[in-house]
């Protein structure tokens, strides 16, 4: 029995290391499994290693390695630890990757535009204040959170405000839309590392829920994001926000909605009852989003296409029955010349939303929009890599902060 357990541990550990080191996406039927293994192993690497050491040591101590299956399991476990060492080392590449993207788009002297006092406080590496010992929910003592403010009539219309404890006024704003396949998002978990960092620097962060599918049908989700922007425009000053400097951001399905919001400023179709409110934004930060519901570039193919899920749970109509609606829901089809500046981030090892689709979206956006489009591919990063407070996510967050501060300095 112990030999079988050791073999099982070795197989799971080795599979996790392989999925983390090599981008595995097919067969698409197992995409969620690839994601789960790659996400936990790739981001919580030290914790996974420690757990494997403890369990493996116990199984060996009680004789688990005394038979051929146990020996194979032990060998796989030891080999996986070599892989974990490579995974941990690869995380350091995130910092240079996003810095290179910033320099390529904004120029090598982009920091010079930032006022000296703010430039001196820009985050760089991972220092003593970074909460790497607790990747789940550390708190910065300089930040306070005001929970569950209503921005509409539906029970789902709730947002949290992140701000500095000194409560300064006239602060730049970042509205963050969490991911969750349009159906499971929670404002308490999405984008927290970025929101905490910005609030500590004197920004106001707004994390908002929206109505969820399958109860909600597109464009309900987008309408709710626009309601949040309208709330900031009208009520933001009460929490210290500058309603004239608002950036929209999101992860996964939240990035999809953030991009659509950036492309649909003041569009009355998505502002029922508040058509006259200015919902324009000065920038957009989009992380590993779905930018093409129609697979117009044929990247995924039939067996990896998300069309079935979207038709049943989000759109509530097949693609071929209402192609215009599906185009309206695809950011790549909504790109416009006057789009605000974009920062687009995607991991090279994303098993759920493929990096090749994001590259095409960026190509279309750069060919159409006048404002700069910064695109950073994060080596080895899986989907949702920035949910935890880990080395890779913090290095990427630091790059996002530098992009946002440069935007603030040049656009305000």
Question: How would you summarize this macromolecular structure in one to three sentences?
Answer:
With 412 residues, the chain is an alpha/beta fold. It is 44% helix and 13% strand. An 8-stranded mixed sheet has the order 1-2-4-3-5-6-7-8, with helices on both faces.
Principal-axis shape? globular
Largest sheet: 8 strands, mixed
State the CATH superfamily name of the largest domain. Alpha/Beta hydrolase fold, catalytic domain
Beta-sheet strand percentage?
A: 5-15%
Please report the total strand number as a whole number.
8
Uncertain runs: none
> Whole-number radius of gyration?
22 Å
Describe the structure.
The chain is α/β, with parallel strands linked by helices. It has two domains: 2-91; 109-411, 3-Layer(aba) Sandwich (Rossmann fold), CATH 3.40.50.1820. 44% of the residues lie in helices and 13% in strands. The protein has 14 helices and eight strands. The protein is globular, with a radius of gyration of 22 Å.
